[in-house]
């Protein structure tokens, strides 16, 4: 295979016209030749800057070297030291602003495709049946992990590798957190990737009890005092959806992105075999500009709707990953930028019949450093839609903090925890991921899970 | 897996089941609910906790077959299991959280409609066990579709039955019976109304006029039941509330019932199709015991 060192080996993708009508994965990933060719572009830097860009500091040149030598088992072993979910991170990490943004290759040409290589290693290892190795020595101590998202799975996996007896308690009927209920099939296949990575964590000896809502079915205090757990990790995420508070928001046809995505991903409403219904809509407005908004929009598109993203700032400020915006545009999603909804219009049956929006312009920068959107007086217009999906962000669920004595939260309802070890204000209780930071990323949640596993090990080794 | 230990037909397409679910049985309180998912392809179906046995680790549910999922559920037999059974969800009844001496000063009237009798039963039973006397009205279209009459008679101070057609005891609906009781000189400091939304709406209209504080138990469409999706949101006074975490009980005088009823009908056409599909049997639904 010919390699231009300045250019990355392109990755194969489903054609936009075809994929807009199915839920199969958009990106097809590298095959062996492509991966080995891309691996030759890595300079094996002595001081690899890419590693600093990765929140869990994966030994990137180390694993790429193994890929170059066609030693997938070796590459997988290197990655496994740092990450429990490489097939997930290789797909959904915002690599362009993390590891790849720091790669020296990126100064003059394209950065090395670190994410795609990581995905190749994880996928190939899975196909070859390579599994992480469980601990040989047991510590004889029990840890409870609340939530089976990336933070919980990582913390549980790391503790199990150290020999702890770990049980994950998950409120939903499936493990994976946002990986299962939020991120769509076409970006992160559920059975092939998510379920397989969950199985890997189980292979380390971790038990997963689904259908247990902590704070309702039992509490943290009971886990510690009556159920014999020596420590608890809270990785309960930030699942509470926000609404705008504009008139008409309770109309039929207005959904939170969480509801829409949960119906489609967790309950598989897009598949006729499953009983849960979803309203596809003919013309859909998705309000917001983050990854979640892109996912909701692309899901609605695949269900057959014409879809508009309504976002109050300009393209430059879109918080979603560049790759997702690009994919959304390719698939035919319309971007109504510098536009903000003011009212949802409702017909006599209580259903959405349109949405009044106002045009915006960018003014002075605000606290976040981004230019503040300001309404242009008199610029209201009606967007003709029958479905509105609100994707305005989420905050942590108060269920756990309100039922645990001594577990403190901050103004933003996030659990207060030390960054380096996850220690909360309650002894023996650790926390990390979106529950602590508010909605963030998979890899940051994993990093926090890792740090907390270390913190818990230190606490229990005292 | 959550095993069905008992199944009983009550009346009017209403079934009772005891489910083995020790964690739920240990912690549930009157007023709370569970979510049942029958199998991999099933919907998540919210159902009120109708009774529980902490020793045996069982929870009783009572459900009416109204659509495809509940019809399929009725085909499950003793010994079979549901794949998922999560709970307890929601908040316990406001009344049982009150200090007992204050609760004993209240004069409480429960008004149940149809399958709503089932969720009222554990609350009345709890009251009896804690020495609080309460009166109960069960409203039904006709005598044959009454459920849990004997059970309720054992725990209520006074049980009144109101049938629309007069086939049993009082002729009229729940509202008519409330007026009748007041005409007889009775009076109450609190009403708890549980049943179809339309019935709760009319009870609330009446009790607002009569100035009796009224609690209702809302049953909007739900998905997760943990506060994550907002499908269950209701307008209560000036606020938007999530029934699954803020409720399911609310001050009935503040609930926007008209909006709630419209929201409940959101999937009507969609569900109508699912029900047809089920009845005509052109797709495999599982759970019928004959084809898998
Ligand atoms: C639609 C969508 C798209 C996204 N896209 C990306 C992306 O492309 N790249 C990226 O890096 N990040 C993305 N994110 C963000 C990322 O998914 C999250 O930051 C990450 O999943 C947080 O992990 P976590 O483990 O902290 O929490 P979660 O993944 O939220 O998991 C928390 C788990 O805890 C469970 N739980 C909550 N409360 C309880 C309780 N009381 N008892 C028991 N269990 C409980 C929940 O059911 C859930 O399963 C996306 C998020 C969404 C919603
Ligand atoms: C907190 C809570 C507690 C509940 N407790 C009980 C109970 O103890 N016993 C019981 O029989 N039912 C109860 N319900 C209602 C029950 O969940 C629904 O009847 C069931 O989900 C309908 O499922 P289906 O697929 O069979 O019917 P569908 O096909 O989904 O619906 C059939 C018809 O019922 C309406 N409907 C849909 N969802 C609901 C709903 N959540 N509530 C009322 N009507 C609905 C639809 O608009 C449609 O007209 C409760 C609901 C909630 C939210
Ligand atoms: S985990 Fe994410 S940031 Fe780290 S190397 Fe992999 S893709 Fe890059
Ligand atoms: S910075 Fe780029 S070239 Fe250097 S080691 Fe990392 S991936 Fe390879
Ligand atoms: S059912 Fe999803 S928030 Fe209440």
From TrEMBL, chain A:
Dihydroprymidine dehydrogenase domain ranges (all copies): 19-129
InterPro entries listed in its UniProt record: DPD_II, FAD/NAD-bd_sf, FAD/NAD-binding_dom, Helical_ferredxn, SudA-like
Record Pfam families: Fer4_20 (PF14691), Pyr_redox_2 (PF07992)
EC category name: oxidoreductase
UniProt xrefs under SUPFAM superfamilies: alpha-helical ferredoxin (SSF46548), Nucleotide-binding domain (SSF51971)
Record bears the keyword Manganese: no
Keywords: Oxidoreductase
Molecular function via GO: glutamate synthase (NADPH) activity
Domain annotation FAD/NAD(P)-binding: ranges: 141-449
Enzyme Commission code(s) on record: 1.4.1.13
Alphabetical list of NCBIfam families matching this protein: gltA
PANTHER family in UniProt: GLUTAMATE SYNTHASE [NADPH] SMALL CHAIN, GLUTAMATE SYNTHASE [NADPH] SMALL CHAIN-RELATED
The name this protein goes by in its record: NADPH-dependent glutamate synthase
The encoding gene: gltA
UniProtKB/TrEMBL annotation, chain B:
PROSITE patterns given in the database record: FAD_FR (PS51384)
CDD domains referenced in this protein's UniProt entry, alphabetically: DHOD_e_trans_like1
Coiled coil (residue ranges): none
Domain FAD-binding FR-type: 1-95
Organism superkingdom: Bacteria
Official protein name in the record: Sulfide/dihydroorotate dehydrogenase-like FAD/NAD-binding protein
């Amino acid at each position: 295979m010919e390699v231009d060192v300045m250019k990355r080996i392109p990755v194969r993708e489903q054609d936009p016209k075809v994929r807009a009508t199915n839920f199969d994965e958009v990106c097809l990933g590298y095959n062996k030749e492509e991966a080995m060719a891309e691996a030759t572009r890595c300079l094996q830097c002595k001081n690899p800057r890419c590693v600093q860009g990765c929140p869990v500091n994966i030994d990137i040149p180390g694993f790429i070297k193994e890929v170059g030598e066609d030693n997938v088992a070796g590459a997988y072993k290197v990655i496994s030291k740092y990450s429990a979910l490489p097939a997930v991170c290789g797909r959904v990490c915002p690599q362009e602003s993390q590891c790849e943004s720091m790669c020296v290759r990126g100064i003059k040409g394209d950065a090395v495709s670190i994410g795609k290589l990581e995905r190749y290693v994880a996928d190939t290892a899975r196909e070859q049946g390579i599994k992480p190795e469980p601990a040989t020595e047991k510590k004889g101590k029990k840890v409870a992990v609340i939530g089976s998202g990336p933070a919980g799975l990582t913390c549980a996996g790391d503790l199990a590798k150290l020999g702890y007896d770990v049980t994950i308690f998950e409120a939903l009927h499936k493990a994976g957190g946002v990986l299962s209920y939020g991120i769509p099939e076409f970006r992160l296949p559920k059975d092939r990737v998510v379920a397989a990575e969950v199985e890997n964590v189980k292979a380390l000896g971790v038990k997963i009890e689904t259908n247990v809502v902590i704070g309702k079915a039992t509490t943290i205090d009971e886990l510690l005092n009556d159920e014999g757990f020596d420590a608890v990790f809270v990785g309960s995420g930030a699942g509470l959806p926000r609404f705008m508070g504009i008139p008409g928001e309770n109309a039929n046809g207005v959904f939170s992105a969480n509801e829409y995505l949960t119906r489609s991903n967790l309950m598989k409403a897009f598949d006729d075999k499953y009983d849960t219904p979803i309203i596809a809509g003919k013309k859909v407005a998705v309000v917001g500009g983050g990854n979640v908004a892109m996912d909701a929009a692309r899901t609605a598109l695949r269900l057959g709707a014409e879809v508009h993203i309504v976002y109050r700032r300009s393209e430059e400020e879109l918080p979603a990953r560049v790759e997702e915006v690009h994919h959304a545009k390719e698939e035919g999603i319309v971007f109504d930028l510098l536009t903000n909804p003011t009212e949802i219009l409702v017909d006599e049956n209580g259903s959405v019949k349109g949405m009044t929006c106002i045009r915006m312009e960018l003014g002075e920068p605000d606290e976040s450093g981004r230019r503040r959107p300001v309404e242009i007086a008199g610029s209201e217009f009606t967007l003709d839609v029958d479905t509105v999906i609100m994707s305005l962000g989420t905050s942590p669920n108060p269920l756990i903090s309100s039922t645990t004595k001594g577990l403190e939260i901050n103004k933003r309802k996030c659990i207060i925890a030390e960054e380096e070890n996850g220690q909360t204000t309650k002894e023996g209780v650790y926390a990390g991921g979106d529950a602590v930071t508010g909605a963030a990323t998979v890899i940051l949640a994993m990093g926090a899970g890792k740090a907390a596993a270390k913190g818990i090990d230190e606490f229990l080794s005292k | 897996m959550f095993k069905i230990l008992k199944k009983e037909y009550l009346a009017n397409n209403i079934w009772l089941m005891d489910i083995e679910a020790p964690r739920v049985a240990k912690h549930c309180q009157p007023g709370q609910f569970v979510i049942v998912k029958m199998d991999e392809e099933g919907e998540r179906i919210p159902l009120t906790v109708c009774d529980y046995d902490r020793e045996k680790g069982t929870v009783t549910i009572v459900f009416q077959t109204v659509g495809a999922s509940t019809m399929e559920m009725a085909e499950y037999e003793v010994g079979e299991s549901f794949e998922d059974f999560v709970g307890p969800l929601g908040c316990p009844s406001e009344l049982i959280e009150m200090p007992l001496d204050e609760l004993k000063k209240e004069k409480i009237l429960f008004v149940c409609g149809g399958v709503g009798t089932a969720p009222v039963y554990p609350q009345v039973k709890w009251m009896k066990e804690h020495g609080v006397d309460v009166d109960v009205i069960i409203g039904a279209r006709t005598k044959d579709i009454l459920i849990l009459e004997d059970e309720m008679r054992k725990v209520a101070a006074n049980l009144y039955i109101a049938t629309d057609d007069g086939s049993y005891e009082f002729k009229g609906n729940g509202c008519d019976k409330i007026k009748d009781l007041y005409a007889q000189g009775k009076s109450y400091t609190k009403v708890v109304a549980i049943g179809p939304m339309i019935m709760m709406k009319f009870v609330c209209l009446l009790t607002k006029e009569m100035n009796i504080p009224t609690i209702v138990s809302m049953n909007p469409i739900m998905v997760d039941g943990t506060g994550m999706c907002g499908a269950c949101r209701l307008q209560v006074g000036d606020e938007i509330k999530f029934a699954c975490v803020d409720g399911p009980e609310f001050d009935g005088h503040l609930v926007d019932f008209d909006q709630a009823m419209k929201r409940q009908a959101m999937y009507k056409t969609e569900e109508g199709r699912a029900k047809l599909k089920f009845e005509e049997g052109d797709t495999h639904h599982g759970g019928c015991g004959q084809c898998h």
